[in-house]
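Model it.
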Amino acid sequence: MRLPNAAHESGPWRIREIVPDFTLEDVWALPVHGGADDFPKLLELVSSLDPANADSLPARALWRIRDRLGAWLDLGRISEPDGGEQALPIPGTDEASLAGRLPDDLRDTTWGQDFGSLPFKPLYRTDTESAAEVSNKTVHGVMHLAWAGCAVEDGGDGRYQGQMAVYVKPRGAFGRAYMAFIKPFRHWIVYPALLRQVERRWKARQP
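Modeled.
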């Protein structure tokens, strides 16, 4: 389910010091629970997702339509990372990547992490959070995954739940219009289908 932004902003996440000029677009509670040491399993699961071949027909169709439009309109594809094209600067900066903003203790922490068919490039990873960036001609975005301790009233006592936050910085008026246009599709089709897929795969992996 969707969470209020405050649910993410109240956590001890390092991402906020790296993207102060980005907008927190979405926060979702993932249907994934486990112990303190299970965060790597969540990262492995997310890295294996393939939205272009999702179980949900509407989500699969939207992903492929966006990919086709990206090719036709030169917006960049979302089904795979860029193929070596010159990186676009982050809007309002001369930086091509957020990697240069990382403090020393977060550099070189992704340990060979690979998002497979997803167009994200890892930025950093800790025991409880991970961030990856994506850049195309509409937006520079960040996917943040967190392993948050559950409150006692929510069945705490050592249990953790996954969270996903999305930060964005649109490219000008067109980027803002694009984000506004796709918002209902993200909230009502893409993310619900993604969460169902995550839940099924997590339950299948857990003993």
